[in-house]
Amino acid sequence: RGKDNNINNNASSASSCLMVESLSRGFAHRSDLTSTLLKSIKDTPSTGYHPPADIWLLACCASAPHNRPKVKSIFKSKASNGGFTSQLLRQSLSGNGVALTSLFGASLCDL
Predict the structure, then answer these.
(1) Both ends of the chain: CA-CA distance in Å?
(2) Distance of alpha carbon 96 from alpha carbon 16, whole angstroms
(3) At how many degrees (to 10) do helices 52-62 and 2-29 cross?
(4) N or C: which end of the chain has fewer CB within 10 A?
C-alpha cells in the first residue's frame, strides 16, 4: 500500500511540474493570457477570494522577465491591502515544493 501512495505522489508531482512549466511558457509567449490573468487578479476586491492557484499563476507569469514588474506590482498591492495573506501563501506553497521548484529561482524569490 505504501508503494502505491509513493507512485501516486510521484505521478502527481510530475504532473504538477509539467503544468507549471507549460503555464510559465504560455505566459511568456501569450500576452493576451498574461493581460487577462493580471486584470482578473487586480480587479478582485481585497475582500474577495483569492485561491492558492492565483499565487501559482502569478509565479508562472513572473518567470518571464518581461512580465515580472507587472506581477511584482500586483503582488505588492494585494499583499499590502490584505488580498494576499500569510495564510494564503502558506496554502499555496506548503507541500508543493516539488511542483514549484522551477519557479523559486525564476520568480518566487523575487516576489
Answers:
(1) 40
(2) 9
(3) 50
(4) N
